[in-house]
């Protein structure tokens, strides 16, 4: 039995070291690309004075929201100025200061509204 004790220590130590070596690789490879956090939608209306946009969007996985049409605050005036009604966008949203805010947006297609 005494002869098995050192062998068990070596095996347990090797298994622990192997698990530690694999864990960082697994965590890094499971990280989703940033673009997957972006939702898709269409800008319907813009209220520049209130810094808000009305967007018809698909599901927003990052905040657990189903597809719907709703207003979002856009605190970045430069970003807001780039958006036009009819634009198809990919965007990121955060819940901040009691409101949903668009923190990033990319225009994927322009379809101006008449």
Structure, described:
The structure is a single chain. With 114 residues, the protein is of the alpha+beta class. The protein has 2 domains: 1-31; 34-109, Copper binding periplasmic protein CusF (OB fold (Dihydrolipoamide Acetyltransferase, E2P)), CATH 2.40.50. It is 28% helix and 36% strand. It is built from 2 helices and 5 strands. The chain has helices spanning 4-29, 77-82, and strands at residues 39-47, 52-57, 68-73, 88-96, 99-109. Strands 3-2-1-4-5 form a 5-stranded antiparallel β-sheet. Strand 1 (39-47) and strand 2 form a beta hairpin. The longest helix is centred in the N-terminal third of the chain and has 26 residues, at 4-29. The protein is globular, with a radius of gyration of 24 Å. The chain starts with a helix and ends in a 5-residue tail after the last strand. The model is unreliable at 7-12 and 14-35 (pLDDT under 50).
**SSE succession:** HEEEHEE
CATH architecture title of the largest domain: Beta Barrel
Report the CATH superfamily of the largest domain: Copper binding periplasmic protein CusF
Number of beta-strand segments? 5
Average pLDDT metric = 79
Low-confidence stretches: 7-12, 14-35
The CATH topology of the largest domain comes to OB fold (Dihydrolipoamide Acetyltransferase, E2P)
Percentage of residues in helical conformation: 25-40%
Q: What is the CATH first-level class name of the largest domain?
A: Mainly Beta
Shape field = globular
Question: Which structural class do you get from the secondary structure elements?
Answer: alpha+beta
Using only CA atoms, what is the Rg? Answer: 24 Å
The largest sheet, given as strand count, sense and whether it forms a barrel, is:
5 strands, antiparallel
How many helical stretches? 2
Q: Biggest sheet, strands in spatial order?
A: 3-2-1-4-5
Overall tally of domains: 2
Proportion in β-strands = 35-45%
Question: What is the end-to-end distance?
Answer: 86 Å
């Amino acid at each position: 039995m005494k002869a098995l004790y050192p062998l068990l220590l070596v095996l347990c130590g090797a298994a622990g070291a192997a698990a530690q070596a694999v864990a960082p690789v697994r965590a890094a490879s499971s990280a989703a690309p940033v673009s997957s956090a972006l939702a898709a939608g269409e800008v319907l209306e813009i209220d520049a004075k209130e810094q808000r946009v009305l967007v018809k969007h698909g599901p927003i996985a990052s905040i657990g929201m189903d597809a719907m049409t709703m207003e979002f605050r856009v605190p970045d005036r430069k970003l807001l100025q780039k958006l036009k009604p009819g634009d198809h966008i990919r965007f990121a949203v955060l819940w901040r200061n009691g409101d949903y805010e668009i923190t990033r947006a990319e225009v994927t297609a322009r379809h101006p509204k008449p």
